[in-house]
Design a protein that fits this description.
Largest sheet: none
Shape: elongated
GO molecular function: DNA-binding transcription factor activity; transcription cis-regulatory region binding
Helix content: over 70%
Structural class: mainly alpha
DNA-binding region: 43-62
Oligomer: single chain
Protein name: TetR/AcrR family transcriptional regulator
Keywords: DNA-binding, Transcription, Transcription regulation
Distance between the termini: 41 Å
Low-confidence stretches: none
Domain HTH tetR-type: 20-80
Order of helices and strands: HHHHHHHHH
Number of helices: 9
Length: 209
């Protein structure tokens, strides 16, 4: 079931290959306009032009710009959550340091796969419907991390859900700092290493002795 809030759902689901291709074309066009021109100029007209179709064709799939951008954001967040979830599943039963490294690596790879897209979607995430989508993604990732931590053979966590929520929050801030251009020189080169150290140390302090 789609996590898009009421009023922002697509008009119809792309059940046929041609429809799926059209929706993907619109999604890519929306990202291109958003990253190159910003949210204020990311209109249905500009998106349709970029996609090489009429605005009327766009409206066959999405009732308005917000619905299209919500779909773009949802797919991005699903990709990030999916990457983290797969990493957590693959590392269940592994030592905690390996869990920390896998979590950091998976999250950074997902966010930096298309850095301009990730950066531009921060603005969309703050629009109508965006916070709900982000909250759902956050809940999914925290649950995946908690399940992984609960399987650790070398630790016993009193509050895996709380530990997971704080650990994930510790990853979100630095990556946004990097993507929005506020990081100092050398930040990106050492980010993965430093975040692994941070989470490994945090998990070590949180586990029951």
């Amino acid at each position: 079931m789609s996590a898009v809030v009421p009023g922002l759902r697509p008009r119809k689901s792309p059940v046929q290959a041609r429809s799926s291709a059209t929706v993907e074309t619109l999604r890519v066009a929306a990202i291109q306009v958003l990253t190159r021109e910003g949210l204020s100029r990311c209109t249905t007209t500009r998106i349709a032009e970029r996609a090489g179709m009429s605005v009327g064709s766009l409206y066959q799939y999405f009732p308005n710009r917000d619905a299209l951008l919500a779909a773009v954001l949802e797919k991005h967040l699903d990709g990030v959550a999916g990457a983290v979830d797969r990493a957590c599943r693959a590392h269940r039963g592994k030592p905690v340091p390996q869990m920390a490294a896998a979590l950091v690596t998976a999250f950074l790879a997902a966010k930096l796969r298309a850095p301009e897209e990730s950066k531009a979607l921060y603005a969309v995430a703050e629009e109508r419907g965006g916070p709900e989508l982000v909250a759902r993604m956050h809940k999914r990732i925290v649950a995946a991390i908690a399940d992984m931590l609960a399987s650790a053979p070398d630790a016993d966590f009193d509050e895996p859900a709380m530990t997971s929520a704080i650990a994930f929050s510790a990853l979100v801030g630095p990556i946004r700092t990097l993507l929005e251009g506020h990081a100092p020189a050398g930040f990106e080169a050492r980010l993965e290493e430093q975040l692994i150290l941070l989470l490994t140390a945090y998990f070590d302090t949180r586990r029951r002795r």
